[in-house]
Design goal:
3 domains; rod-shaped
Length: 396
């Protein structure tokens, strides 16, 4: 697993394991039951009896149980053995239902094989999925030819084959669109992070510009006015000299105030870290982001602000693109020594961590500020990224 590094194209199917919405699950179960009605009625009426009926019922039960199990528990990405087993059982039990059904009831049973077409792109590369579709259609044609003749094999086999092709094409298109939406969501998160940093940098630049203008314009003229008043107080007689000296004192006091203001503007601008992070923690697609920070102001300077924003951006990108997580928890914990920020997801995790550009850059950024970053992960247990950044207590 690579943290912060894209996966190579063609190495595995896009978004290998996809969450199925509940309406699709219900529709699949209803379709399975609807296709089985004719044979169930045939068994109930006694038209199908004995070993043939028991064999069909066993295949029917196995198909339904596998369908429900596949819907209830999604195998973690990177462990596709269970998903492939589900698909294999659906194909075998579907062919058994076709073989043991009687008469016209065979053809609705054959339609159940289309389920495998929707799943194949999720568990294998595109070319292998298309070869698997061809093999399923050929096996169905052989079963129908053996039991119902060549005409039934050609007509039904070609119809189911076309349905399988449609199913696999529809599923592949859905996976591609899902990957595109994920990329767009990541780009949107990056734009939000850049916008927050740009706004912060703009505020810093504006304060610096105002301080320079005050120094170069008002400060310069006040210094000149102070000198002129000092000279004038020595040249004119009393009591006018006394008034000029008072004006000179007020000018020096005003000049001191201007210098204090300039010094304040030139000092490092500190902002609340939560105000920078919270706009980034919006739900993105299937990823729910949970952000928690205690009440109060958590002041950071511009370099620390950028490190924290980039940290949040990187963990969101990893959860979406690499971990395929459903939930991401981000917590900000201020302390006496500094700020600790912790992020964890419920994604697939990895048995072995391979630091990519994102994680390396994050560690370098925090190290420059005297902090550190620690990553823990385990296959099937998600990622946890914990970072610490020392901060200086700001005066109130």
């Amino acid at each position: 697993m690579t943290f912060g590094r894209g996966q190579a194209r063609g190495s595995r199917p896009i978004m290998s394991v996809m969450r199925r919405p509940r309406p699709t699950d219900i529709a699949s179960l209803l379709f399975w039951l609807a296709c089985s009605v004719l044979t169930l009625m045939s068994i109930y009426d006694g038209a199908t009896t004995g070993a043939q009926a028991y064999a069909w019922l066993a295949a029917f039960t196995l198909f339904g149980a596998t369908l429900i199990a596949a819907m209830m528990k999604r195998p973690p990405e990177g462990r596709l053995g269970l998903a492939r087993a589900y698909c294999f059982v659906l194909v075998v039990s579907g062919l058994m239902m076709v073989a043991f059904a009687v008469g016209p009831a065979k053809y609705p049973m054959a339609a159940l094989l289309i389920f495998s077409g929707f799943r194949l792109p999720e568990i294998m590369p595109e070319r292998r999925a298309r070869l698997a579709v061809a093999a399923i259609a050929l096996l169905l044609a052989v079963v129908l030819w053996w039991q119902a003749g060549m005409a039934a094999a050609l007509v039904s086999g070609s119809a189911i084959g076309a349905g399988l092709v449609f199913a696999i094409s529809f599923s592949e298109q859905g996976l591609r669109e899902r990957a595109i939406r994920t990329d767009l969501a990541i780009a949107n998160a990056e734009l939000r992070a850049s916008r927050e940093l740009l706004a912060e940098n703009s505020r810093v630049a504006e304060r610096l510009r105002i301080s320079r203008d005050l120094h170069d314009a008002l400060g310069h003229h006040l210094v000149a006015l102070s000198i002129q008043l000092d000279v004038a107080s020595r040249r004119v007689p009393d009591p006018a000299a006394q008034d000029i000296r008072e004006a000179h004192s007020l000018t020096r006091l005003l000049l001191s105030d201007v210098r204090d203001i300039i010094g304040t503007l030139r000092r490092e601008v500190h902002t609340d870290a939560v105000t920078l992070i919270r706009p980034l923690c919006r739900n993105i697609g299937d990823l729910s982001i949970h952000f928690h920070a205690p009440e109060g102001v958590h002041l950071v300077d511009s370099a620390q602000a950028e490190a924290l924003v980039r940290y949040v951006q990187e963990v969101i990108t990893n959860a979406l693109k690499h971990a395929t997580a459903g939930n991401l928890w981000i917590e900000l914990r201020p302390g006496t020594r500094g700020i600790t920020v912790c992020a964890r997801d419920d994604g697939r995790g990895a048995q072995q961590l391979e630091p990519g550009t994102g994680l390396t850059g994050m560690r370098e950024r925090f190290a420059q500020l005297g902090g550190d970053v620690a990553v823990t992960t385990l296959a099937g247990s998600g990622f946890e990224v914990k970072a610490f950044m020392p901060t200086t207590k700001m005066p109130t």
